[in-house]
Write a structure and sequence with these properties.
The structure is a homodimer.
Chain A: H1 9-37, H2 41-51, E1 57-59, H3 60-67, H4 71-83, E2 87-91, E3 99-103, H5 105-125, H6 132-150
Antiparallel strand pairs in A: 1-3, 2-3
Helix pairs in contact in A: 1-5, 2-5, 3-4
Chain A binds a DNA duplex (30 and 30 nucleotides) through helix 3 and helix 4.
Chain lengths: ~160, ~160
DNA sequence: GCCAGATCGATGACATGTCAACGAAAGCGT
DNA sequence: ACGCTTTCGTTGACATGTCATCGATCTGGC
């Protein structure tokens, strides 16, 4: 761990800005979502991903994978949403272990009435504040980082135990 | 709520990319931090902010403000960190209600040994993947969004109850 | 000085997220 | 067909975050 390469002024500005934006944007979007639609961000994400499928149904595992959630977290969260009547679980025909998460009419209703306001908030607090070039840059940069993180090989460019186990 | 302006393809790409990056980057940074230094991200942030002050001491309220945390959350978290010997609380001389959060030698030690690795991780998974122009763009864009969100006036460009209460 | 209201930090109840473990059911090689 | 291993979703214990509330203290107007 010799001579750490600290962030220079510009890098630091970007990193701090990112974290601060992250926090504030989250707070504000969550606040508006709760107030206007009675949904939390996790609620919204679940409903949103479900509603993007043709039937509004997904294997729990598949949904967890798309959301980058653990199955455990999703299972807990679904139980709460099920209580509120937003989703249901059905048994899976081809795999007796599995369960299928199904959007209820109430859930469909909830996401459809929440979406316009939420998208508007995303615009108001982020997208519409950026130039088209910045939108593209953000798209490019985030996807590059995501691809990097998703690749288990690339992620490991660090002082490695070079296979001694 | 007429004709919502949905996100076009590029905007959607940026927004999804942002959220995905957010999640993956967080998971990875938290993972490495725990593994290499035994700290959570919140731990690191507290220690980091404290260590940036000359004496390693801050009013609880002031620290909460800088971190964009509620006083309650910080109080709870400090209790846990105090248990582990990373920080202490001292009474405040000029305000008998207040308490001052103090970095212990162990806390100083912890942040100093964690920092190089953490910065390296931030580089590896984010900063070093960007071009200098992208770093600058990210800095500019995030700060603009932050300024916007911090300004209670600007935040309210939405279908407003136009003062009828 | 005194009182009304604001602020400070702590606390308990509760919501949410993580982690390790589990039983049940598939997959897979033989 | 038989075990061994993996995967699926659930569960309970626990860590963490939020929210409302509290007592103590400060502040400003009178």
């Amino acid at each position: 761990m010799d001579a750490p390469r600290w962030l220079d002024e510009r890098e630091d500005r970007a990193w701090r800005g990112y974290r601060r934006m992250r926090r504030l944007l989250d707070l504000e979007l969550a606040r508006e979502l709760t107030q206007d639609a009675g949904l939390s961000e996790p609620d919204y994400d679940v409903l949103s991903d479900l509603s993007e499928t043709p039937q509004g149904r997904l294997r729990l595992s598949e949904l967890a994978h798309r959301m980058l959630w653990s199955r455990s977290r999703l299972s807990h969260h679904l139980s709460r949403m099920q209580q509120r009547g937003l989703v249901t679980r059905e048994e899976c025909a081809d795999d007796a272990r599995g369960s299928i998460v199904v959007l209820t009419p109430a859930g469909r209703q909830a996401i459809e009435s929440a979406a316009p306001g939420h998208v508007a908030a995303v615009r108001r607090h982020l997208i519409d504040l950026l130039t088209p070039a910045e939108v593209d840059a953000l798209g490019a940069l985030t996807h590059r980082v995501v691809d990097h993180l998703a690749d288990p090989g690339l992620r490991a460019t660090r002082p490695q135990p070079t296979a001694e186990a």
